[in-house]
Amino acid sequence: MKQYHFLCSIPRSGVTLLSSILNQSKQIQVTPNSILPQLLVNLQEAKDTIYFKNFPYHKGINNVIKNLFDNYYSNINTNVILDRAPWGTPYNLNSLKTIFKKRKFVILYRPPLECLASYVRDQNILKYKSEDFCHKEMNKFDGHIGRSIWAMKNIIEQKEKHIIINYIDLITDTKNQIKKIYKFLNLKQENLDLKNLKQFKFANLKYDDSMFNNTLHTIRTNKIEQVNYDIEEYLPKSIIDKYKDC
Q1: What are the backbone angles phi and psi of residue 4, rounded to the nearest 5°?
Q2: How many distinct structural domains can be found in the chain?
Q3: Interatomic CA distance for residues 126 and 140, integer angstroms
């Protein structure tokens, strides 16, 4: 029987690097951006349809929800899945609680303004045009970064079982951070190759970033190196002032 744990990270925080390293393992696989939260929403919304209300077979939908993870990942030949999504938001966390009695979360954290600057840079958005884009990304309901921050804070506030991996530690002390994750997830320690990395792959598939016209999920394969962003170069002062304490 597979075990499921959950990875919450801010986009542009080194999550593709971490996932690429861990996916060398035969014990655990880290997923790409998971669509399972959306599938759970869709299943719950089905209960609001006139067809369901006409014949409210709750047990049927609840059976689908209960077995969603096992069915979705049935072809993955590892015992442990680390599902990557903003699982800590109140709705998502409540959904997990209906499926899993015990939950473990790995939180990968990088200062949000650094992640936001990286986003602006990679999207080739001019600084003086970036303010609306930044506000949208930092919105906790539909912004990629804002929603991730919300999820992390809620995991901590709800005292869910978790560990925090900081981006700078992942880069400068990679081996020990991987050991920390293995210990937390009760995995047998492995010697993973930290010098000859491969691009992220899951179920023999890779991200298709062509639709974004950039390389959001491409990592350096020959070395692990910190990428520094001068946030003042990419972000307006108004954005820095507003979100500096997030």
Answers
A1: -120, 130
A2: 1
A3: 23
